[in-house]
Each structure stands twice: as structure tokens, then as C-alpha cells.
């Protein structure tokens, strides 16, 4: 990672320009944080990451184009294992934080967090620590006591689950993930079994409920 003498370099990844602008103002107001770039999707995020070599990446988990923030983070880590990524999401369910951390995230915050928490998280991650917002930390602790949970899903199944929750077809999911449709169908069957869903409609409802999407989009 490229170092900066006085500033922590940050790359912001979110598909809403207004949200990125808010993050930029909040972070740069601190005086020791410099937002060196912005991106609205996974492809742009990876290109900017490789070109700018930011110390910290603040990235939404839900990105347009079928590639999630977690998958985008995996690509960054494959390019540079020292990448420090803070996942910043509207999703307040423990399953998202758990999968993000397992996939290599340095931290996880919900968008419900107070503004100063984002600044605290960036500073903490920059110093080499992991950071999880208090609300998520509590849910993660409680999650350990739950016997049956979607956390049993593999990383790939979790990626498929997110796309199923958006109402995407098996063919569409296969194309966006670069998988064989039969492989995606097998993942779907495994997910149905683990979530106790009997039909495709039942699975859609359960996945949307779990992912936090409302019918009609989010």
C-alpha cells in the first residue's frame, strides 16, 4: 500500500453520488483523512484501487451490476493482500457482517451509525485493528447462540442468496457470477434446504426477509 506522510488515503465506493459526497465531507473535515477517489460499482472500484493504492477502502455491500461489495473486496485482496476494507451498509443483520469479516473485511458499519463512528472506524482500521459497530457487535455475539442460522451457508451460497433476493433468474445469476447455470441451481437447492424453504416463492420471501429487501426492490 502506498503511504502518505500526513493523510490517510481513502477510496469511497457507493452507487449514490450524494452518499459519497456526504462521506467525503465528513472524512475530510477531520484534517488527517484524504479521499483520493470515488467509485460507483465494483469494476470502477477495482480499477481505482489498483491505480490509487488507497490505505482504506470504504465500500457499500450492495453495488449495481451483479457484483457485491464482498466480491469486489475479494478481488482487491487478491490484487493486494494488505488491502484494508471497511464495509459500510444499510444491512443491520449479523449474517452480512459475519460474511464480510470472514471474507477479509477489516471492519463493518451500518449506515445507521453516527457520523463520528465512521471516522473512528477509519482511524482504527488504519492502525491495523478490526472494527465492528456496537449494534452489529452485539448481534454477532447473540448469533453465536443461535443453533439454526443462515450463517451455515457457504460464501458462494451467500452470494447467490443476495442475487436471488433481488428476483434474479438462475441464468442471469450464472452469467453475472461466471458460473454454469446447473451450478447455480445446485446452490439454490442447498440454500432452500438450509433455510427450510419448500418452493421457489418461499425461498424468494425468505431470502428477501433475510437480506432486508422489500418486495419491489430496495
Write the layout of secondary structure elements.
Blueprint: E1 8-13, H1 17-28, E2 33-39, H2 42-52, E3 56-59, H3 69-79, E4 85-89, H4 94-102, E5 107-110, H5 115-126, E6 131-132, H6 134-143, H7 155-165, H8 170-177, H9 181-195, H10 200-211
Parallel strand pairs: 1-2, 1-3, 3-4, 4-5, 5-6
Please tell me about this protein's structure.
The structure is a single chain. This protein is of the alpha/beta class and 218 residues long. The chain has 2 domains: 8-143, Response regulator (Rossmann fold, 3-Layer(aba) Sandwich); 150-211, Winged helix-like DNA-binding domain superfamily/Winged helix DNA-binding domain (Arc Repressor Mutant, subunit A, Orthogonal Bundle), CATH 1.10.10. It is 51% helix and 13% strand. It has helices spanning 17-28, 42-52, 69-79, 94-102, 115-126, 134-143, 155-165, 170-177, 181-195, 200-211; strands at residues 8-13, 33-39, 56-59, 85-89, 107-110, 131-132. It has a 6-stranded parallel sheet with strand order 2-1-3-4-5-6, sandwiched between helices. Helix 4 (94-102) crosses helix 6, helix 7 (155-165) packs across helix 9 and helix 8 (170-177) packs across helix 9.
Contiguous helical run count: 10
CATH class of the largest domain: Alpha Beta
Shape: globular
Overall residue-averaged pLDDT value: 84
Head-to-tail CA distance between termini: 35 Å
Helix coverage percent: 40-55%
Number of strands: 6
Rg = 17 Å
Task: Spell the H/E element sequence.
Answer: EHEHEHEHEHEHHHHH
Structural class: alpha/beta
In the predicted model, the low-confidence regions spanning at least 5 consecutive residues are: 1-5, 213-218
In the CATH hierarchy, the third-tier topology of the largest domain is known as Rossmann fold
Amino acid at each position: 500500500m502506498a503511504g502518505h506522510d500526513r493523510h490517510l488515503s481513502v477510496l469511497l465506493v457507493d452507487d449514490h453520488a450524494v452518499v459519497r459526497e456526504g462521506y467525503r465531507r465528513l472524512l475530510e473535515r477531520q484534517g488527517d483523512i484524504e479521499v483520493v477517489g470515488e467509485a460507483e460499482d465494483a469494476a470502477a472500484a477495482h480499477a481505482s484501487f489498483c491505480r490509487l493504492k488507497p490505505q482504506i477502502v470504504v465500500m457499500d455491500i450492495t453495488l449495481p451490476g451483479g457484483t457485491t461489495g464482498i466480491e469486489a473486496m475479494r478481488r482487491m485482496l487478491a490484487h493486494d493482500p494488505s488491502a484494508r476494507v471497511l464495509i459500510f451498509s444499510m444491512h443491520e443483520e449479523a449474517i452480512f457482517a459475519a460474511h464480510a469479516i470472514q471474507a477479509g473485511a477489516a471492519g463493518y458499519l451500518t449506515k445507521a451509525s453516527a457520523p463520528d463512528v465512521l471516522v473512528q472506524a477509519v482511524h482504527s482500521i488504519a492502525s491495523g485493528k478490526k472494527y465492528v459497530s456496537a449494534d452489529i457487535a452485539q448481534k454477532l455475539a447473540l448469533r453465536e447462540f443461535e443453533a439454526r442460522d443462515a450463517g451455515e451457508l457457504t460464501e458462494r451460497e451467500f452470494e447467490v442468496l443476495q442475487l436471488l433476493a433481488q428476483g434474479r433468474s438462475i441464468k442471469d445469476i450464472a452469467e453475472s457470477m461466471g458460473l454454469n447455470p446447473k451450478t447455480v441451481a445446485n446452490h439454490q437447492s442447498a440454500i432452500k434446504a438450509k433455510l427450510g424453504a419448500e418452493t421457489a416463492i418461499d425461498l424468494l420471501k425468505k431470502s428477501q426477509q433475510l437480506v432486508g429487501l422489500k418486495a419491489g426492490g430496495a
